[in-house]
Amino acid sequence: MPLLLNVLNPDAGAARPSDSVQQTIDAYRAGEQAFIGISNPTDTDLAWLTDTFGLHRLAVEDSQFGHQRAKMEKYGDIYFVVLKPTVYVDELEEIRFGEAHVFVGPRFVIWLIKDSLRSEVHSQEVMEAAFARLEDEPTPMKFLHQLMDGLVDGYIPVVEGLENDGDEIEDSLFGDNHEASEISQRIYGLLNEVSDFKRAVKPVAQMLELIMGRLRTQANASAEQQQEETLELLRHYRDVHDHAVHVSERVDDLFTSLENALQVNATIVAERQNDDMKKISAWAAIFVAPTIVGSIYGMNFDDMPELHWTFGYPFALGLMVAVSLGLWLVFKKKEWL
Q1: What's the CATH number for 274-333?
Q2: Mean pLDDT, the chain, as a whole number?
């Protein structure tokens, strides 16, 4: 029977692994399979993992420092996979990213949790649930399928949360209750979140394609019974791949939609500024007309028409009002006011 061991935060700084881990190592050396999960491994943990399972030093170095992009690398017959589980906090419109490093060999899986996104109890529940979903004897590749299936399923609520915020932004674009600068800031912030999420999602489909390629090669070189088992596993990976591609396409569509929303918002801001300029120009023209009339009659020349006329003053006032009213009607008709 394969071994399941989820060791979370073993004795830090120990010169050798804990007794439970040592039992798993002994069983692995005797030909059993080993499934080990460690939360925030220390340098000592990585050292004995490297010695026991023959991990490549470059992959171990990546696990040591963390903060890796989502990727898959192959060192001989061992896969090194970096996964980025995510949780979307709708109230803050922020995505919280986790990081898990998975080493998958012919007879072992080492799952290193490199973040505090999940509690230790939840991490253990995830690993045990992955085993519970396996219908027959667990293998490293079947277990990896369950991990990646859960990862992609976890991306769907994140996409839905981002799309919901995108819909709210589109609704507020043409409303009068939001300042343009606030909308621009919200769009820009959401674009950054979607961009970060896109970098976590995109490589997953590529990882699955590499795995499926390997499984096809194994199926062609296997006996009939083993070939059918490999093809069945390939079908399961293909299903996860379809979901990953679907999520990736939704993220691309959302990113494009937000870019368009940012451009539309800039256009709306320009139109509103143009309307404001029209109003300012119209009122300036209306107030300039009386100023012109008043300046003409304020020249104080001795020989001027209507200068000594009894009705000169009311005529000048009436002319100011008439010109201003005429301009107001013209601008009103043109919808400048």
Answers
A1: 1.20.58.340
A2: 80
